[in-house]
Structure formats: C-alpha cells, structure tokens
Amino acid sequence: MAASYRLTVRDGPRVQRTRHATLDAALDALQVHTVELRQRPPREAIDLRVRRFEPIAQVVARAEIDGPQRLLPRVRAGLDVRGDGSAEAWIGRAARRVVEPRDGETSLAALRRVLETG
C-alpha cells in the first residue's frame, strides 16, 4: 500500500495502529472503534484537592487519522472520547480546531462532513 491513511487508537496505555487505502475506509474503522469506546461505563470525577476533573473534561481515548503523505499529512483529524461517553471531533496538527456538529449531527458525521468538503 503506497499511499494510505493511518488510524491510531489510543486507549489508556494501549495503542493500536492500522492502515487503510482510502479516507472513507479509515473513517469507517474510526467509527467502529469509537462506538465500542463510548459504550463503556462513565468515569468518576478526579479530585486533586486543588482541582477537580469532571468526566467530561477527561479524554479517555483518542482515535486519530493522518495521511496519505507520511511526512506532512494532508489530513490530520480525530475523535476524542470523554469520560462521560461523549465524543468531540477535531482537525489540525499543532493547533487543533474542534469540529462543531450541526443540528442532529453526531461528532463523527461532523468530522466526515468537514473532511469530505476539504
């Protein structure tokens, strides 16, 4: 596979990497992984005395797509799964931008929309 998209799923200490021939195939694989991750029971709040981290503020897993170029990928986007089971889509390299879903749209659908429109 010469030009491909890489999907990296970080779930706690576990990292899983797969390659996909097309962006659509990578997004389909991202959907499979994030649906599974979002079905877990919610996390508890973390209280550090100085600061409290609610489940929505905790990123418990991240699925990231980049490619097809290896050095400076044209696409760099992903989905963060929060401790309460919600998901937030983002795009960008060093400066990430949150992808806001439209009415009735899921985070993954919003990510697909943004990546397909270029």
List the defining traits of the structure above.
8 strands; single chain; alpha+beta; 118 residues; two-stranded antiparallel ribbon
Fold and architecture overview:
It contains 2 helices and 8 strands. The chain has helices at residues 23-38, 107-117, and strands at 5-11, 14-20, 46-47, 52-53, 59-67, 75-82, 87-91, 97-99. It has one domain (5-117). The strands form 2 sheets. The chain has a 6-stranded antiparallel sheet with strand order 2-1-5-6-7-8, covered by helices on one side. The protein has a two-stranded antiparallel ribbon with strand order 3-4. It starts with a strand and ends with a helix.
> How is the largest sheet built, in terms of strand order?
2-1-5-6-7-8
Mass-distribution shape = globular
**Helical percent range?**
10-25%
Number of strands: 8
Beta-strand portion reads: 35-45%
Query: Can you tell me the residue ranges where pLDDT is under 50 for at least 5 consecutive residues?
Result: none
The major beta sheet can be summarized as:
6 strands, antiparallel
**Can you give the mean pLDDT?**
89
How many helices? The count is 2
> What oligomeric state is this?
single chain
Query: Number of folding domains?
Result: 1
What is the H/E order? EEHEEEEEEH
What gap, in angstroms, lies between the N and C termini?
A: 23 Å
